[in-house]
Amino acid sequence: xxxxxxxxxxxxxxxxxxxxxxxxxxxxxxxxxxxxxxxxxxxxxxxxxxxxxxxxxxxxxxxxxxxxxxxxxxxxxxxxxxxxxxxxxxxxxxxxxxxxxxxxxxxxxxxxxxxxxxxxxxxxxxxxxxxxxxxxxxxxxxxxxxxxxxxxxxxxxxxxxxxxxxxxxxxxxxxxxxxxxxxxxxxxxxxxxxxxxxxxxxxxxxxxxxxxxxxxxxxxxxxxxxxxxxxxxxxxxxxxxxxxxxxxxxxxxxxxxxxxxxxxxxxxxxxxxxxxxxxxxxxxxxxxxxxxxxxxxxxxxxxxxxxxxxxxxxxxxxxx
Length: 320
Hints:
Layout: H1 3-10, H2 13-24, H3 27-43, H4 54-72, H5 98-104, H6 123-129, H7 134-145, H8 150-157, H9 161-178, H10 194-208, H11 212-218, E1 219-226, E2 233-235, H12 237-250, E3 256-264, E4 267-275, E5 283-293, E6 296-303, H13 306-310
Parallel strand pairs: 1-6
Antiparallel strand pairs: 1-2, 3-4, 4-5, 5-6
Helix pairs in contact: 2-3, 2-4, 2-5, 3-4, 7-9, 10-11
């Protein structure tokens, strides 16, 4: 690939990865699709006539790369979960580390800053848009997240204006049904608040101490916990505590619990590790991503420990 072209394209790698991540919900797939985007752009570089910005041209290519990938995907959301449990219905959903989101918009005043605001990168939003048909998803992301005008979307998708407007209307209606009730009150912030960080620290401390009572005080009565890709939903504080209790109070196969704060999808999160009796090494257990309402945990999305290496969050902490 020509050095000048590669350098120009590389400037947009991080925000294109976020765009592809939204389209597919998979952190691992997003990087592959960015590579495919750059390859298609290089092969079709003669067709860039300068009618749009280079950034917009790459977005157009990336969107169509994602649509092609979705057409190949055999798994559909209809095969999973139950109505009203969007996290369970999207078993391929993966978290995205905040430190990489920061790379997507280093200049808060730049045009790419809008693509990583919290309200459009939280897991609830990501799970909800996965229920949209691919072209509706593309239209919604390009219009409501990236901020493109309808005529530009029509050109990118080679679609008529009436078709794009209709797709946008249907997509917005679906989101209203799928998103949490209080989603409209979320602020377009870039990071968890001080109050949320403080609650996360309490969660981490209680997890380290295996303190079920302290953990119970952090949960809303109607809290929910899901564990993609497993088809499991724990509805309500009591159900969540009943699920945790054997591991925190009765399981003697682990000698020590460790919990480390993380930041993914602009949400407070924690990685949990445990040490077996007589061993010095710790084993990664899971990643918990928290959604907080009114100062309490409303939802916990629990991912497997393998994603710690997938999303580049490093090795387990050493036992001291």
